[in-house]
């Protein structure tokens, strides 16, 4: 496919997926995310052919012009839609599949100089059809499965299965294959407060066990109250007996 056909495909993709797009000419002239993708294709070619400094300089110029920072080494698939675009960052070893949608403020970032298994790849992989909401952060050499959705403001630190929806800081799965995922174990949330909640629940269980097994202390007035109850019962019986005698 030649470069002109790719441009037409990109414009058609934006027209199909962006309700704000009113005409192909408007998309061509006023879509900074699309301009960033087109510039990246040239920069990536330069990067692969050894013109790395030139590629980096041009990527910085694109960042200034579009508000989108894409490292020339990143691999981008076809029909990538970067909507609004301002603040999007895509790292050097990131891989983005086809038909992916990124909103403003999304970061595909790394967590260090190398990944946990000493792989040179330190940025995430987004499979085909992934949707990432605004200001979400996807960090490290992880994989977001096909057709998965990342909620706005989420921080994703672990792999996400295909056809899943994740939200939260750090992100956890709430939908998978169209089914609601119910979390019954606080460990599954992986929230910084999870350990505190678990410790509190364990403490409550221990206190309940202690109070349930402890011998109840007798009331100091139990014996006196028992005598009073017996006396009241005896007086009621006597009253009934007298009433019966008067009736005779």
Summed up, what is this model?
The protein has 248 residues and is of the alpha/beta class.
Please state the overall shape, judged from the principal axes of the Cα atoms: elongated
Instruction: Output the CATH homologous superfamily of the largest domain.
Output: Hexapeptide repeat proteins
Number of helices: 6
> What strand order characterises the main sheet?
3-6-9-12-14-15-16
Strand content: 15-25%
Distance between the termini: 118 Å
H and E string: HHHHEEEEEEEEEEEEEEEEHH
Question: What is the average per-residue confidence, as pLDDT, rounded to a whole number?
Answer: 85
Name the CATH architecture of the largest domain. 3 Solenoid
The low-pLDDT segments are: none
How many structural units, i.e. domains?
Answer: 2
Largest sheet: 7 strands, mixed
Percentage of helical residues? 40-55%
CATH topology of the largest domain: UDP N-Acetylglucosamine Acyltransferase, domain 1
SS-derived structural category:
alpha/beta
What does this structure look like?
The structure is a single chain. This protein has 248 residues and is α/β, with parallel strands linked by helices. The protein is elongated and about 115 Å long. Strands 3-6-9-12-14-15-16 form a seven-stranded mixed β-sheet. Strands 1-4-7-10-13 form a five-stranded parallel β-sheet. The protein has six helices and 16 strands. The protein starts with a helix and ends with a helix.
SSE layout and pairings?
Layout (H helix, E strand, L loop, with lengths): L2 H15 L6 H7 L1 H17 L3 H15 L2 E2 L4 E2 L4 E2 L6 E2 L4 E2 L4 E2 L4 E3 L15 E2 L4 E2 L4 E3 L3 E2 L4 E2 L4 E2 L7 E4 L4 E5 L2 E2 L13 H20 L8 H26 L1
Parallel strand pairs: 1-4, 2-5, 3-6, 4-7, 5-8, 6-9, 7-10, 8-11, 9-12, 10-13, 12-14
Antiparallel strand pairs: 14-15, 15-16
């Amino acid at each position: 496919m030649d470069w002109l056909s790719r441009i037409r495909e990109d414009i058609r993709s934006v027209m199909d997926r962006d309700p704000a797009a009113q005409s192909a000419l408007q998309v061509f002239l006023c879509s900074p995310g699309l301009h960033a993708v087109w510039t990246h294709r040239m920069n990536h070619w330069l990067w692969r052919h050894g013109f790395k400094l030139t590629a980096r300089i041009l990527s910085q110029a694109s960042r200034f012009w579009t508000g989108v920072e894409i490292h020339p080494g990143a691999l981008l698939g076809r029909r990538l839609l970067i909507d609004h675009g301002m603040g999007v960052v895509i790292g050097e070893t990131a891989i983005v599949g086809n038909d992916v949608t990124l909103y403003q403020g999304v970061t595909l970032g790394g967590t260090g100089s190398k990944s946990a298994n000493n792989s040179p790849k330190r940025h995430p992989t987004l499979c085909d059809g992934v949707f990432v909401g605004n200001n979400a952060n996807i960090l490290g050499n992880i994989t977001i499965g096909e057709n998965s959705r990342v909620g706005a403001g989420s921080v994703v630190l672990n792999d996400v299965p295909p056809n899943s929806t994740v939200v939260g800081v750090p992100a956890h799965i709430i939908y998978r294959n169209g089914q609601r995922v119910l979390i019954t174990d606080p460990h599954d949330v992986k929230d910084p407060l999870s350990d505190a909640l678990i410790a509190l629940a364990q403490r409550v269980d221990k206190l309940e066990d202690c109070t349930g097994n402890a011998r109840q202390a007798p009331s100091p007035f139990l014996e006196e109250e028992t005598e009073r109850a017996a006396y009241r019962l005896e007086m009621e019986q006597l009253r009934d007996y007298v009433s019966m005698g008067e009736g005779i």
